[in-house]
Amino acid sequence: MKTEASSGLESSLSLLSKDPACSKLKHIKDSCETAIDILEDVSKIRSMPVFRLRAMCLSPFEMVLEAKHSKLYGYVLDGISSMIQDPRFISDELEKDEDCQFTNQIISLLQTNCSLPDDVLLGLMKFLLAFFNSKVFSVNSFSLKGIMEICLNAQRTSLQSETRVAIRGTLLQIYSSVCASLIDKSEPDDNDQCYYRGINLLRGDIFETLSHIVRLMEGIQEVSQSIFNIKLGLCLDVLLTSLVSLPLSINQDSRFLDFIWQCLCPALISNLGNPRNLKTVTSAHDKIEEGKLSLSEVGRGSGTSTQPPNIVGTNARIIYSISAELLRHVGCIASMRPVLQSLFHRMLLFPPSNYRLVPLNSLCEIVLNPERLLDICGPTIADEKQSGDNRNRRESDIDLLKLIVDAISESVYSENVHVCSAAVSCVCALLSSLSAISRGEGMKPFQIEEISSWVDSFELMTPDEMSLRTTRRIRLTHHKLSQQYRKPEEIYIRLVKQSLSQFRKSVGTSYIIINT
């Protein structure tokens, strides 16, 4: 007895073979007739492996796509939509050969470089969502990579903004669902090895796919700058959505940490500030020696660019949002702090101060959250790859915060009023979060234990020991300052005069607020 889906497939094949456009495409017509003959013979279906039956029925559709005949594309979507609902094409067990699996056969068919009309692209996105939510879809690295490449090609060929919105929504929904599936609410038994083995494989597929997306992002080469920005934005959107959807427990997987520091962060840094001409990079130390800047006017003394950032606008904002998600995931891991410092340096200190408005606005949102501020400068977790004692780790905990404060301090000297105002907002947000942390808000259990151990160590010290340690630190600090500033009062007066002459009234007000 034929089901509605089976009759739909045979109807699509029959209509395709009778279409006038196939009159000059005899090989497509013959392939359709061959597939129909097999489907009408039950004995042939039973004697044939399921994957081979699928291949025989997909062959006409593959020929249509290879022929790049736009009038026939509708038959392809109708046919494969019927196939995923037809029980004759569903195997009882998953094939060991990945090329023979139903999901991979469909994805391979749709991975074409032909230009599809916008109405067909909308139908394709509708099919991908239905296929993903069907029982026959198998989540693996091949299927996820294939969907990504299908949507990238669709973005390249689409002409209407509505179509691009549909493509983006489809892709983000699929990746969000896959990453969110790692959050299990059923609390399985600790001895359920099959469950944990499946989760481990799924994680591996996700990490492999995300690494593939980063490589795609780095390899985008388009003549048109607009197409380049669209494809880059789609890759960044997928990375951001995946990080938002992944559970926090993912940072316990070493493969995720390797993906962050070996793949993702270098790509983001390269996109943010990889100047085509190295002469555009200057050293802050050189400016100090030339007398163009004082020590208080520079941050960490790292190199800065004299040209605008390579990426601006929406794509830059997505990168800043990705940076915030990376803080949420790995900010509390000690070995990841140096990687984050490199990324935030490229965001906040590398571009000229006049081009830091958007990064400062993103930074303001980050430091306004007490939890994110603790991810920046709070106690950290030492992972397996890190060596060293707790004291050295505590001393490096605030390095990222120092970098952020340096960026804010430099931004005060910007000639752009809006940049100065954004710097003031960052300081206000920073103070607000510090006040919340002082009340115990946003602190994780391990951070509370770590800080409590510090307090206990101080309580064990006698007043004389604490006084001696404090005196040594004060003397050491005073000695360093005396070497750097021979006449600190003269430098202070000079800085005040410079600030008054450089800024307008509003900028001067911002400067006073920050220093206050």
Provide an overview of this structure.
The chain has 516 residues and is mostly helical. It is built from 24 helices and two strands. The protein has helices at residues 4-18, 26-40, 42-47, 50-67, 73-83, 102-110, 118-132, 141-157, 161-180, 193-218, 225-245, 254-273, 284-290, 314-330, 337-348, 357-367, 370-377, 390-395, 399-411, 417-438, 445-459, 463-484, 488-502, 505-515; strands spanning 281-283, 303-305. A two-stranded antiparallel ribbon has the order 1-2. Mean pLDDT is 78; it is low at 185-189, 290-301 and 477-516.
In terms of DSSP E residues, the strand content is under 5%
Question: Strands of the biggest beta sheet: in what spatial order?
Answer: 1-2
The assigned structural class equals mainly alpha
**Total number of beta strands:** 2
Shape: elongated
Cα gyration radius (Å) = 30 Å
Low-confidence stretches: 185-189, 290-301, 477-516
Cα separation of the termini? 83 Å
What is the count of DSSP helices, taking H or I runs of 4+ residues? 24
Order of helices and strands: HHHHHHHHHHHHEHEHHHHHHHHHHH
Please tell me the overall pLDDT.
78
Largest sheet: 2 strands, antiparallel
Helix content percent band: 55-70%
In a nutshell, what does this entry contain?
The protein is built from 24 helices and 2 strands. By secondary structure, it is mostly helical.
